[in-house]
Amino acid sequence: MTTATNIITAFVDYLEHERHVARNTRTSYACDIGQFAHYLSEIRVSPDEVTSGNVADYIDALKAIGKASSTLSRTLAALKCFYSYLCATGVCELNPVSNVTIERQQRKLPIVLNIIEMNDFLGQLSGSDYKGIRDKAMMELLYATGIRVSELIALDVDDFSPEMKTLTCAGKSGARRIPIYDGAASALQDYISKSRAYLTNGSDEKALFVNISGKRMSRQGFWKIVKHYQEKAGITKEITPHTLRHSFATHLLANGADLRSLKEMLGHADISSTHVYKRLIDKRINDVYQHTHPKANLHFAELSG
Predict the structure, then answer these.
(1) For this structure, is 242 an active site residue?
(2) What is the mean pLDDT of the segment spanning 125-137?
(3) Domain 4-88 belongs to what topology?
(4) 3-state helix, strand, coil in the chain (%, to 5)
(5) Residue 172 appears among annotated catalytic residues
(6) pTM metric for this prediction
(7) Any idea where the domains of the chain sit in the sequence?
(8) Which end of the chain is less congested by CB atoms within 10 angstroms, N or C?
């Protein structure tokens, strides 16, 4: 039998000096493998004696205590890498992890605002003072374009084209140009001409959206603004800064947008990420059917009988 601690130490050294793996990855792999080694000690199995059944049982044990699917995937990746190393160094003959898989869990559907809720939310943005004018421009722009909050606060003044009524956004998958509806373009021009100059106090700040100190808006600052207007609108759904992005995508899809166009506007690298909004639309259609069709709605059928 081989000492687990010695094997793990040698593996981490290999990741650092031969594979040049980033420190955070090395740390997380070492932690995952260390926890697996502790599990093996409890069932009295050495790391070089592990079977695929042992690995599958461990993954099931993690599932049973509520570990997230992302944690399970990372753990399995760490173990696959670890046992590939053990096979390469002659410690193991066969990789016990090679045929172990994790059943993919369906992605949780996002929370979105319906049209009435969205109008109520945007209706709270009167734009009556410098901050209000800024807040109206930010929220209208988010709903107009569906950009991420990180992309919103990274925008510079030059990214907006008032003539073309478009926004150039440097996202995860490269820069993309997104059209803006008239109301959002007007709110943005209003902010730039009336409010931004006051908030920046004539400084050379490039950021499009700034806080009361004239510096680039932060995620935390934006989060507080969203919660403020949620409370004013009396919306009880758990809104996050991403809710306007999800609502944008769902409303466009419900009104006839195709998935590929929506993918480009959202800046998704893969269309599978965009499919979550189709699932949301399909679920709503199914819910309407179940609640309104006489043969599906038993309560309705009983009343009609």
Answers:
(1) yes
(2) 92
(3) DNA polymerase; domain 1 (1.10.150)
(4) 60, 5, 35
(5) yes
(6) 0.63
(7) 4-88, 115-290
(8) C
Check if 4-88 and 115-290 are the same fold.
Answer: no
Give percent above pLDDT 90 in the chain: 56
Label each residue of 124-180 as H, E or C.
Answer: CCCCCCHHHHHHHHHHHHHHHHCCCHHHHHHCEHHHEECCCCEEEEEECCEEEEEEC
Please check whether residue 125 is in contact with residue 139, taking contact to mean a CB–CB distance below 8 angstroms: yes
Set 134, 196, 251, 268: catalytic member: 268
The single residue listed with the structure tokens 């959206």 is 209
Pairing between β-strand 160-161 and β-strand 174-179 as defined by DSSP bridges: unpaired
Which residue among the candidates 136, 196, 245, 246 is catalytic per the annotation?
245
State pLDDT tens for residues 38-94. Answer: 999 888 888 888 999 999 999 888 888 888 888 888 999 999 999 999 999 988 888
Of the residues 19, 38, 107, 172, which is catalytic?
172
Please state, in angstroms and rounded to a whole number, the distance separating the CA atoms of residues 138 and 209.
8
Q: Which of 148, 196, 246, 251 is catalytic?
A: 148
Considering the four listed CATH numbers 1.10.1040.10, 3.40.50.2300, 2.170.150.20, 1.10.443.10, the one that applies to the domain covering 115-290 is 1.10.443.10
- Residue 293 is predicted with a pLDDT of 67
Residues 6+ apart with CB under 8 A from 30: 8, 11, 12
Distance CA 305, CA 213 (A): 67
Q: Cα separation of 283 and 280, whole Å?
A: 5
297: confidence class by pLDDT, cuts 50, 70, 90: low
Which residues are CB-neighbours of 83 under 8 A, at least 6 positions away?
Answer: 50, 92, 95, 96, 97, 98
